[in-house]
Design a protein that fits this description.
This is Type II secretion system protein GspF domain-containing protein. Keywords: Membrane, Transmembrane, Transmembrane helix. It comes from Alicyclobacillus fodiniaquatilis. By secondary structure, the chain is an all-alpha fold. The chain contains eleven helices and no strands. It has helices spanning about 5-30, 40-45, 45-80, 85-95, 100-115, 120-130, 135-150, 155-175, 175-205, 210-215, 215-240. It is elongated and about 75 Å long.
């Protein structure tokens, strides 16, 4: 993930404020009510925050799957480098597919080489763990720290880590069918909402869209239904591929 700066925080704050103001203005014009647009405006204004949280979570999920092949590839390179992690890690990051996790390892190597103390190296490790967001990466970074800073042979620990990851992968395959059911239930409301409106228009009354989008109560109920539907879809997508972690 990209490094945040005070400027990016201010920009994000302005985007949030403008989103609320825009939504409030549009709904105020359509509803002619000072209070009805407040809740929809607040809900849509926090959507960027929800997006960032979801994006960070999805990245940690991807990292939890990418770390297995990385550890498996690191072990022979570590052995070929005579158990020298400072040689093995850059060799790994140059030859492996450039996933976000591999790029994070490449940055970790550069920063650890510039570390001026063990405390500085520990801070670098903590930042790496915060960015990658998995317990597997915490175990791996702990081994990298020991190899870089303490010159400890971590071959057996790397092998054990790879075995644990493989065992977790095998255990999670058993729940794949249940996760697909959760995914389908999660995305169903997204399609049911417009389908229900169309059915209401065709089978019940031609004024369905007027009641839904031309009255304060209709707009409020639609926004709330839309938020709930999108939240359900987000949960379904996230749990369809859960984090492969300890």
């Amino acid at each position: 993930m990209k490094k945040t700066t005070p400027t990016s925080y201010r920009t994000f704050g302005w985007v949030t404020l403008c989103t609320f103001a825009g939504v409030y203005f549009v709904l105020f014009i359509t509803s002619d009510n000072l209070f009805v647009p407040i809740l929809p405006g607040l809900v849509l204004a926090i959507c960027p925050y929800i997006y960032l949280i979801a994006r960070r979570h999805m990245l940690s999920i991807r990292n939890s799957y990418d770390i297995g092949p990385v550890v498996k590839a690191l072990i022979p390179k570590y052995r070929a480098s005579h158990r020298n992690m400072r040689h093995a890690l850059p060799l790994l990051t140059k030859t492996e597919t450039q996933t976000p996790f591999v790029r994070a390892l490449a940055r970790l190597h550069l920063k650890l080489n510039r570390a001026h103390s063990s405390e500085h190296a520990q801070e670098i490790i903590r930042n790496f763990n915060a960015q990658t967001g998995t317990d597997w990466s915490k175990r791996l970074s702990s081994l990298i720290y020991k190899a870089y800073i303490e010159n400890i042979d971590v071959e057996d620990a790397l092998v054990k880590l790879e075995e644990d990851i493989t065992a977790t992968q095998a255990a999670m395959k058993d729940g794949r069918t249940e996760r697909m059911d959760t995914f389908l239930l999660g995305i169903l409301p997204v399609f049911a909402l417009p389908g229900g409106l169309a059915l209401l228009y065709i089978a019940v009354t031609r004024n369905a869209f007027h009641y839904q989008f031309g009255t304060p109560q209709g707009i409020k109920s639609f926004v709330m239904s839309l938020v709930v539907s999108l939240a359900a879809a987000l949960v379904g997508i996230i749990f369809n591929r859960p984090k492969q972690d300890i």
